Write the structure tokens for this entry.
Amino acid sequence: MKRIALLVFVVLLVTACGDDGLLDGLGDRSVNAVHGETSLTSTTVEVIRAEAPLGSIRASDLVWYNDGLEGEGFGVPNVVISTVWNRGDGATSVIQATRNEIAAALPGIQFPELVPDSVGWVTSQMVYDAASGTLGADTSAQFGLWHLEPYSADGGRTAAMWVRPATSSDLIGSISSEATVNGLSLSWVAESFHYRILCPVDLLDENCWQMAESPMPLSLLLPEPEPTDS
């Protein structure tokens, strides 16, 4: 009787291991319990950046008005300078340029990381000596910070900044301030460039100083490259 009972048990066990047996999938569940799911999934890592101080916004979050201009030149500064110059009419000294072009034409140029939170747009131009088609010595690049869409209305600009190459008489040091009839003017020298920001009288002085005290390389404020089809 014991042998018969053992034989019946074996038959039942073999039957249960068939295609529709009760043990189907048990091994899979065991693996999942120990090792987790085995399917491959992609993971997105979110980079959390510290918020800008109250009353300010990061320059990387602004709309750079001239980004997207056709014919951007990259690489060798002289090539970029020539590319932008050819965009003009051969007589106008101030020519619209993207931040990519300005960063490439003037390696090491800086721009404020923090600007007043009323600012929404930045305009950017390269400034030339029209006689030679080379960048101007007194001003090589300029930026406008706008609280209204650029050129849409008078009085829509919040502040302006001018950049030129530093000279032997320029000293790297503290920020110089000057109160003018047009507002507060701040100037300083960093690396190989001289910077000047003019803030109108209706902009708080601390907002103006914050811009001058938060410069960072413009190359770190460039837009993310567009994804390419693989």
Q: What stands out?
A: The helical segments are 2-16, 26-35, 77-87, 99-105, 205-212. The domain at 56-221 is CATH 3.30.200.100 (Phosphorylase Kinase; domain 1). Confidence is low (pLDDT under 50) at residues 1-48.
